[in-house]
């Protein structure tokens, strides 16, 4: 897979996740994104929760996974990206 396709997968995943977070916040009356968890926007009892899950959160997770698997092989020739992936993996594992 070429680098343009991998980049587009990553960007699409981020845009889809951001859109579902924003739309989920607007769909619930009185929702404050600074005080409540994002999982409350796509819970079972919410009006548009199933749509946010099926068309937003789950596909963005799949796109994130595809991006990380393919980006490892595509972009590791760039030294700064190697360090970025190492930092990202370390920060996901080590959470104080």
Please render the helix and strand layout as text.
Elements: H1 3-27, H2 49-75, H3 79-93
Task: Give a short summary of the structure.
By secondary structure, this protein is mostly helical. It has one domain. Helix content is 70%, strand content 0%.
What pattern of helices and strands is seen along the backbone? Answer: HHH
Structural class: mainly alpha
Domain count: the total is 1
Total helices: the number is 3
How would you sum up the major sheet? none
Helix content: 55-70%
Task: Describe the protein.
The chain has helices at 3-27, 49-75, 79-93. The protein has one domain. Helices cover 70% and strands 0% of the residues. The protein is built from three helices and no strands. Helix 1 (3-27) packs antiparallel against helix 2. The longest helix is centred in the middle third of the chain and has 27 residues, at 49-75. It has 96 residues and is mainly alpha-helical. The protein starts with a helix and ends with a helix. The mean pLDDT is 78.
Provide key terms for this protein:
single chain; 96 residues; mainly alpha; 70% helix
